[in-house]
Design goal:
By secondary structure, the protein is mainly alpha-helical. It has 2 helices and 2 strands. The longest helix has 21 residues.
């Protein structure tokens, strides 16, 4: 593949409906996604900083999930929601 020619092709999830009451699970997964990301960054030597700096390894999102701005939480929520939809699309059943 030629550099700069990558075209993402996510699976179409527009036809997937999730069960009622899935928002609690979505939020739990979003929180965990953030914690997994943060744990990985911290293990690589990153620390909290007011701006992203790849040389100093600082990142403003290295805070607890509850302290993230809503825009960052929405990013994690979107990841979790699309993961749940993909699970359903692949024929798995989400239940409790």
């Amino acid at each position: 593949m030629e550099k700069g020619k990558y075209i993402p092709k996510p699976i179409d999830l527009s036809d997937v409906s999730l069960p009622d009451g899935i928002s609690d699970l979505t939020e739990l997964i979003a929180r965990n996604v953030h914690d997994v990301w943060a744990q990985s960054r911290l293990a690589e030597g990153w620390v909290y900083g007011k701006q992203i700096d790849n040389v100093l390894k600082t990142h403003p999102s290295l805070v607890p999930y509850d302290e993230l701005p809503e825009s960052e939480k929405d990013y994690d929520r979107n990841t979790s929601l699309n993961t749940l939809k993909l699970i359903v699309k692949m024929g798995y059943i989400i239940g409790k």
